[in-house]
Write a structure and sequence with these properties.
By secondary structure, the chain is α/β, with parallel strands linked by helices. The chain has a single domain (60-414), classed as Alpha-Beta Barrel (TIM Barrel). It has 11 helices and 10 strands. Strands 1, 2, 3, 4, 5, 6, 7, 8, 9 and 10 form a 10-stranded mixed sheet that branches. Strand 6, helix 8 (268-275) and strand 7 (279-281) form a beta-alpha-beta unit. Helix 4 packs across helix 5 (165-173). It is found in: Golgi apparatus membrane.
Length: 415
């Protein structure tokens, strides 16, 4: 009987503890609900506190993006510039006859197959520059490669890209981004005028904290210049400027720099070498469009560069579509395939172990190579392409992921 009494006493005690425990749980749940905090279901451990996201790592100075500052809007320029791009006729009048002519009429009809999240903006707008630098930083891009014409030159009589350089340098510096120059072809460009351009750029902007300098294998820090359509000038003319024995050589002077030529055709490799260039880039984002832009040729190009002490900078892009300004050029369109085209290009670039990768482009909207934020848009006459089902920032996020991958790969290569 004593054993039975002890057992019944235990049962009473356990029942009392159960009642007390239930009362405490109910009181806690009521207090939590009153405080407006969602209650955890009884029996589940409380969720751990949210860990703050790590601070964004700095940009990669081995990742260069081609940047265009030629856009204008009524608020800043008095009219739309470049967004109103003309439809370019085909060189064969018979082909041209089958396609529309005229100009685009912004803001609803712009010279692009995509529509920018910022709308048809002005490159002069400080808010736009700040947003662009934020997007570049979010993508981990360390070097903005500015499309540049000398003062008074440009592909538009009123276009003075040089006047924007101070604002671009300041805006870039605020995000720890650096600026390199992409010297465009202009009327009369040759080795003598480029000599003057280099002196002008270095004298005027060389002391700015955001002016990009590349650290060479010998430990020198030198400005780096991309020369677009460099093949338009004969190799022997460039040699006057870029070889140590040239008639007006920049080598071993205060204006020495790293000069990167555009490789289009296979034969350009030897011209670039004899001209005295330091390396080559491929620019075009349309795989197969040229010898240089064809991913399958990059291994052979890199082998040639390594054998001749040249730098190879492959150019990758998210896709290509320029039919909004060249309606007859559909055969060069490259579909983005929801980011797969871009990732394929990035993988092809990393396979050849380059020192630098260039991106075509941050904001060349006419050719649909931009990684800048784009939004869906439909008007009565146009349906724009977009990044759906992904967010407007999709290509910035992809770039950041690959920047981290590139950085890790480089550590392995160096080991």
């Amino acid at each position: 009987r004593r054993r039975r009494q002890r057992r019944s006493g235990r049962v009473v005690l356990l029942a009392a503890l159960l009642v007390l425990g239930t009362a405490l749980v109910l009181r806690t749940l009521r207090a939590t609900a009153a405080a407006g905090v969602p209650a955890e279901p009884p029996g589940n451990p409380p969720a751990p506190p949210a860990v703050p996201a790590p601070a964004a790592s700095g940009p990669s100075y081995d990742l260069h993006a081609f940047y265009y500052a030629w856009y204008g809007s009524p608020r800043f320029e008095g009219r739309y510039r470049h967004w109103d791009h003309a439809l370019v006729p085909h060189w064969d009048p018979r082909v041209s006859a089958g396609f529309p002519r005229g100009r685009h009429r912004p803001p609803d009809d712009i010279g692009s197959s995509f529509y920018p999240a910022l709308g048809p903006y002005s490159s002069r707008d400080p808010a736009v520059l700040a947003e662009h630098m934020g997007q570049l930083r979010a993508a981990a891009i360390g070097v903005l490669v500015l499309s540049w014409y000398p003062p008074g030159q440009g592909d538009d009589a009123e276009e003075l890209s040089d006047s924007l350089v101070p604002a671009i340098l300041d805006a870039a510096h605020s995000q720890a981004i650096q600026v390199a120059f992409h010297i465009q072809p202009y009327k009369g460009r040759d080795d003598h005028t480029v000599h003057e351009n280099i002196k002008y750029i270095m004298d005027k902007y060389g002391s700015h904290a955001a002016f990009y300098k590349y650290k060479t294998s010998t430990g020198r820090s030198l400005p780096l210049f991309y020369i677009y359509d460099s093949y338009l000038t004969p190799a022997e003319s460039w040699a006057n400027l870029l070889t140590p024995s040239g008639s007006h050589s920049l080598r071993n002077t205060a204006y020495d720099a790293v000069f990167i030529a555009l490789l289009v055709e296979e034969g350009h490799k030897n011209d670039i070498l004899s001209a005295g260039y330091d390396g080559m880039y491929t620019y075009f984002a349309s795989n197969g469009f040229s010898f240089g832009s064809s991913h399958q040729n990059w291994k052979a190009i890199k082998t040639f560069c390594d054998a001749n002490n040249l730098m190879f900078i492959p150019s990758v892009g998210p896709g290509y579509v320029d039919t909004s300004i060249r309606p007859w050029n559909n055969h060069n369109t490259r579909n983005r395939v929801n980011g797969k085209y871009y990732e394929t290009a990035l993988q092809a670039a990393l396979t050849v172990r380059p020192e630098i990768v260039s991106i075509t482009s941050f904001n060349e909207w006419h050719e649909g190579t931009q990684i800048e934020k784009a939004v869906p848009k439909k008007t009565p006459t146009r349906l724009y392409l977009d990044y759906l089902p992904h967010q407007p920032s999709m290509y910035l996020e992809l770039t950041r992921r690959w920047a981290e991958h590139f950085s890790k790969e480089k550590e392995q290569w160096l080991m």
